[in-house]
Design brief:
heterodimer; A: 123 residues; alpha+beta; N-terminal domain of TfIIb; 4-stranded antiparallel β-sheet; 4 helices; 4 strands; B: 489 residues; alpha/beta; VC0802-like; Rossmann fold; tRNA (guanine) methyltransferase activity (chain B)
Amino acid sequence: MKLLTHNMLTSHVKGVTKGYPLLIKATEVKVNEVEFNPQFVSRMIPKLEWGALVHAAEELGHRQDLPGELVQDFEKNEDFLKKVHRVLLEVEVIEGCLQCPESGREFPISKGIPNMLLNEDEV
Amino acid sequence: MSCQGDGPSEQGSNSVGPCTSSSSETDSKSGDVITVTIGATVPTGFEHTAAEEVKEKIGVAARISKDRGRIYFPITTDKLFQVHLLRSVDNLFVVVEEYDHYQFKQSKEETLLELQQLASKLPWTNALEVWKLNGTLKKKKGHRKGGNTTKVKPNRNTTEVAAADTEQQLHQVASAAEGQLEAESAADAEPCEQDSQEAAPEAKVIKFRVTCNRAGDKHSFSSNEAARDFGGAVQEFFQWKADMTKFDIEVLLNIHNEEMVIGIALTEESLHRRNISHFGPTTLRSTLCYGMLRLCKPQASDVILDPMCGTGAIPLEGAIEFSSSFYIAGDNNDMAVNRTVNNICHIQKRRADKDRISGLPIDTVQWDLCSLPIRTSSVDIIITDMPFGKRMGSKKKNWDLYPLCLREMARVCRPGSGKAVLLTQDKKCFAKAISRMGGLWRKLHTVWVNVGGLHAGVYLLKRTGAVFGQTPEDVHERSVPQWKRHFQC
């Protein structure tokens, strides 16, 4: 699971209103090289929940020096874009779980695939 | 190298392009560039998409044939390798001769006799040169193990990598320097003679077969008869050996009413399963996936979801071919998500083996598409192959599934700018479901396609600007009880 995906995932357990962002508990993390496309990164940033991304990167120990708030004119800052690229696309959680911040329900991640299926009684 | 005595047949209305010499030397050592017409078979319904791709990657205008599923375009031999970069074509062939209005004789005997006589009069030379050149393009990759690949049956869960190898071959071919290609064709160049005994530089006997496709109700003969008689004459003329299974050259005889095209195949097996090594029961061919993706025109940073991804064919084709977007492939079924991940890993490993950056902009999640664990209004494009109810699921399930699907997809899709491209054979059910969603989805365009013999529709939808939960349909839906569905895939 990449952190870009995590940024979009939310808990949908019945009755939960504050299911975002999911907490990450990772037991295996990998870094895979993905081709850098600055236009992709700079256009993606406004679509993200920035705080959630930085927090998730921190949970995995891969925050490096990403700022808590977005810098101005980030579109032209290639160094910054490269850091964001790495965190969005290259860091992957292979084993672990995601946890709903409100209900505590855990969703396992195995072989990089988060299993978000709910049981009968949770829907 | 000049063409001697090889003018166009007098019967042809569209003959193969002239032999042009790009060299001022009279010696036939240098590889002259000639122009030929290439024919390509594409998924029916996506002819225009394929023509667009040809315009974009080869820079020429393609002609769409009346015989559906085919396009034609000119190319010069120095650019031949480009045809192997096309993602929307299933099969490629070089045209020997085309007839728009061939007047078949009344009787079967006369017609077949005429076909036999045609064999020796056709302008084979250029087409054979191209076939030969194409052979060197393929050889560059090194021989595939086991020769011709057998087609993988869709319901077999094997790790068949042959289709993947084809793509590998073609990609490496594309990165080979053009200069190298010309040097090779120069080495193989021979004087153009109409009654040339052998086309290949080696002294072995060439094996061939003729494949005939015939459509139309005014013909007095069958495709088998045409293939047999035409093939016999070709064998006589060239002194090749007929072999139905281990052939070097496949001659194509395509007859569609009054339109007749004779060609030589450039692809030995269909290119359409190129990405998939781990098949599922209903894996969509990659050329169809490519056509669907082109339809929605992915932009840089678009988030593209396939909520019923099966083996991941669509998002994987997207991650490779429209790589400035991000793909999330999801399915509720264990086997499906595992196969998707395996297919992705297989492609990544192949890229790594070629010293390319292997990571792809794609991720896989296991989820229930009626209750997507995705933030509202965060997805730009939804693209998927919806269960047909014939090979997967059932028609009754579709009546419940489709409306729920469309609603959940509308929720996650960005209002105003979002799009959906949905393939389904259950047109009635889809039409009913979409008619109740006018506040959320607007139909932009429909492409009618053929999937595994079933007539299906690819619907391009636009997400309206309406906020989810506030259209009249939504108010109605809230009063209808929801219940959990289990889908056995």
